């Protein structure tokens, strides 16, 4: 009498899993199909230095052409510089913030810092961009690379803080207590015990912050100038006049670069988790 319900439950589970897999595949296809199409068009010959919807031939000439496009290359260089400084600042502030969210002795301070961190992620980027733009306009601060970095760094700080917070929650305080029993000061414990355990999370958070800062469009659109233009803003501006084939080539390279950054962060985090698991077994 119990055979039929078991078979029925197994069949329902199989149908549910298949439906979920199909839904996930459709979502991935919907999200990545435009990107794949863009990469494909980076090899399209086009017509008179303009990209066309129809494939007119295959060529690799747009990749070296993108390198020799001075305005495009300057936009990429500006994005690399801004993202680097933003990631460094975010790692310095976000790591301390993520640690304080977990280890600060006062609960009200921990709650306040947690709320501030989530607020940096919840507030729409358009609101942040307009607010920063108005602040610079009222205070008569000239727009340059530093103001652009200051505008896009808060979100990167929140990303770093949340990643570091997740790692701090898993730290074994008994190791710190043992170090204190052996005469270690708080500074030495932080430097030799806590930071080495947090290093993979900090490195992963830094890569994520770099990626988010490099790809930032909304805030950067409010703070760029004709002299300082980032790559996402350059791409968005090129769409108004019909994107050149070099834009597709540059976008493809940046997309692959972003994938490598995220893959490196995931690999680093996984290797560290395996190492911690092996040490726990020993």
Please describe what this structure looks like.
With 282 residues, the protein is mainly alpha-helical. The chain has helices at 3-41, 62-68, 70-103, 107-122, 125-139, 145-169, 173-181, 186-214, 218-223, 231-238, 245-281. The chain has a single domain (65-281), classed as MetI-like (MetI-like fold). It has 11 helices and no strands.
List strands and helices in order, with pairings:
Blueprint: H1 3-41, H2 62-68, H3 70-103, H4 107-122, H5 125-139, H6 145-169, H7 173-181, H8 186-214, H9 218-223, H10 231-238, H11 245-281
Helix pairs in contact: 1-11, 2-11, 3-4, 3-6, 3-8, 3-10, 4-6, 6-8, 7-8, 8-11
Runs with pLDDT <50, length 5+?
Answer: none
- What is the number of helical segments per DSSP (H or I, 4+ residues)? 11
CATH topology: MetI-like fold
Number of strands: 0
CATH top-level class: Mainly Alpha
User: How helical, in percent, are the residues?
Assistant: over 70%
What's the domain count?
1
CATH architecture: Orthogonal Bundle
**Proportion of beta-strand residues:** under 5%
Can you give the mean pLDDT? 83
Shape by Cα distribution: globular
Order of helices and strands: HHHHHHHHHHH
Give the terminus-to-terminus CA distance. 49 Å
Considering the protein shown, what is the CATH homologous superfamily?
Answer: MetI-like
- The SS-based structural class is mainly alpha
């Amino acid at each position: 009498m119990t055979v039929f319900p078991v078979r029925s439950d197994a069949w329902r589970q199989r149908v549910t899993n298949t439906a979920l897999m199909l839904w996930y595949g459709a979502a991935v296809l919907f999200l990545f199909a435009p990107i794949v199409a863009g990469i494909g068009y980076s090899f399209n010959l086009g017509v008179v230095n303009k990209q066309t919807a129809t494939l007119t031939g295959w060529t690799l000439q747009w990749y070296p052409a993108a390198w020799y496009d001075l305005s495009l290359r300057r936009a990429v260089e500006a994005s690399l510089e801004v993202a680097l400084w933003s990631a460094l600042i975010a790692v310095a502030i976000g790591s301390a913030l993520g640690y304080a969210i977990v280890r600060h002795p006062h609960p009200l301070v921990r709650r306040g810092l947690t709320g501030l961190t989530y607020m940096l992620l919840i507030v729409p980027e358009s609101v942040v961009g307009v607010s920063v733009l108005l602040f610079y306009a009222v205070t008569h601060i000239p727009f340059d690379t530093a103001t652009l970095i200051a505008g896009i760094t808060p979100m990167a700080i929140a990303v770093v803080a949340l990643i570091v917070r997740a790692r701090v929650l898993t730290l074994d305080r008994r190791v710190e207590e043992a170090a204190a029993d052996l005469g270690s000061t708080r500074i030495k414990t932080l430097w030799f015990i806590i930071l080495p355990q947090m290093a993979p999370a900090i490195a992963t958070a830094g890569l994520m912050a770099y990626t988010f800062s490099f790809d930032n469009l909304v805030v950067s659109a409010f703070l760029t100038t004709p002299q300082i233009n980032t790559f996402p803003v350059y791409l968005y501006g090129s769409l108004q006049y019909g994107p050149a084939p070099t834009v597709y080539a540059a976008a493809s390279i940046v997309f692959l670069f972003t994938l490598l950054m995220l893959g490196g962060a995931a690999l680093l985090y996984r290797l560290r988790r395996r190492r911690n698991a092996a040490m726990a077994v020993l």
